[in-house]
């Protein structure tokens, strides 16, 4: 029996991932739930376990490929059926290399199909030059489509005889972009040495004090998986200077993204053209491209509008001050602001159910549960873990869960399912010093609350001017489902619950 391995659901707003590395090879035996392949998204890294025991009979997506949710990754055969094909593959594997050495025929490199709706791609970067020696499956060129970026491997070993499409050209699926002379060898005069073992290593370049210019990029470490290798290549980083946080000290895509460019590299003019010593052109990372696309999709899909108010935080701060030590002693966690805001939002959501709903085609889905997403900033990007059934949890339970989410988000240990299914989101730009902002919806949710920094400001109270700790609140909402009256009512209820926390206890 054949069991398919597919890309699991990766999060509410995550639609694709990059194959970081395969932990098993074709023909190897696997046990049920044994990790097979590691996927990297713009939020987390996740290992896909084997859905059944048997032999890994095929791998459909290679390291470095970008795959969509539910895409086929490979297949597993029951051990009895798979043992023969695996053995057959082992005995036949050396044959192509032997034939290649003697044939000398020309092999065309074509643009592979990369999706049902993808008909063309742009040539990103050639990794080899005409006359260079290439190995079977060695990356030749990167292609970029409107959905993903991918490397095209060499279909044979030999010499790159001809390049028929230049960087920046748009080519159709199936078009011939290069020709390889199979089994041929490159001479010293053909320029192969410039891409071969005589290249200076990143450490040698740094030691010489020379700037890293176009055509002299540090060669990525062989130990890097494709996702971080691409980032290292794009930004001209030295892999030896990057601290790996992955398993066994392995460098992840997030490690490469947050690594600083060396001063000598930062001063160097970047491709595709020299902008002078005061400027630098750097290709946008795939992470930033994904973030940009999803934020724009949210703006294009929803009729997004933001309403504002301010809240006097005096009562909450006095309550925290009064019970801070007792709360921490009993529950083992400090009493923060987020539990107050989570409870205040749940109370308001019950009064204005439209904010807790979502649109599905021509239907409105009203949620009778209150799962609050809490935006957490990390070095690898913004993640939004979800507090399930926040209406059923105490403030201590909410504080403990938020603290746990924060720790695991920064270490990259959050699970995919912990970031799915939220009905409303709270984001706190105040921790970075933001005074006012307009948060963007976390689709398909219909509302998001933005918190900001607390600032001592003069306000009028009972005919007198007093100084109070004030915070601006911003509530963005989808005007297709939430009317202005509902949005304003929601934000006013949040304000009232925070300025008089006893309302939460009395359910007023």
Q: What is the CATH C level class of the largest domain, in words? A: Alpha Beta
Secondary structure: helix percent: 25-40%
- Structural class, from secondary structure content? alpha+beta
How many domain regions? 4
Our count of helices gives 12
Q: Quick one: overall form?
A: elongated
Protein name: Dihydrolipoyllysine-residue succinyltransferase component of 2-oxoglutarate dehydrogenase complex
Biased composition (Polar residues): 187-198
Cofactor: (R)-lipoate
Keywords: Acyltransferase, Lipoyl, Transferase, Tricarboxylic acid cycle
Task: Give me a quick take on this structure.
The chain has 508 residues and is of the alpha+beta class. The chain has helices at 79-92, 94-103, 202-208, 226-235, 253-258, 263-266, 286-301, 314-331, 338-351, 395-411, 484-499, 502-506; strands at 2-6, 16-22, 29-30, 35-40, 45-49, 54-59, 66-68, 72-77, 106-110, 120-126, 133-134, 139-144, 149-153, 158-163, 170-172, 176-182, 304-312, 357-360, 363-366, 372-374, 376-378, 381-383, 386-387, 424-428, 447-451, 455-461, 464-478.
